[in-house]
Specification:
With about 250 residues, this protein is α+β, with helices and mostly antiparallel strands. It contains four helices and eleven strands. InterPro entries: Reg_factor_effector_dom_sf, SOUL_heme-bd.
Length: about 250
Amino acid sequence: LAEESPDSAYHSHGSSLEEEAAERMDDEEQERLLSYWQSVGRGHQVDVPRDMAEPIQQLTRNNNPQERQSIPFTLIQRKEKLGDLLYEKRHYGKAKWACIKMKEKQYEQSICLGFMKLMRYICEQNSSGLYLGITVPIVTIVHTNEAQSAMSQAVTVAYYLPEVLQDQPPHPFDSDIIIEEWPATIVYSRSFRGITNEDSIMREINLLAAILESPELCLRDTFIIAGYTNPAAANRHNEIWFLQRP
């Protein structure tokens, strides 16, 4: 048998040291991201379990603006006043969404826990075994009473499946996640920033209702909160959507 040259021995040993160092850095990054999410979770009274470390890391690494796919829509109208955008009227086509119903005591708890379940589905816990890719916005369906003065605890958190997966969505391992096909819809959308909770949502609903020329054309008890930044972000970019009656 030919003896291994000192040079090749060095390279094989060196590469294994590099792999070990890379694994160590990988583990450190996972721990750092997990502890950050856990501290944010505590602020929302949500426990972030250890098995979220890998999905959080995958999502963080792939969360470049270039990597994210925006949900396609057709702009129908932009309503402005003195140069400020008041709202947009948009048409969203028929599409498949991965949805999970949540009913925690607080809205923030529901969206955090729902988002974590969807993250696991996106990050390989699906029948394809693949990372599915992030689409924005992640949306939450909320319900109010007819008078639009109080919000129900039950919400639905939903993830739009990327274009390439629309025809054959991977099956979720989590039986709480349901793949639904939503019909084509016209929405009236208004942007707002910051945290989303019962108070801020009700304020945004009332604000858009006051601005719309014909609010009676929209559903009075069902609204969508569209989130463009993850629930861990402090100054989040959100939209409130009113849904035109079918």
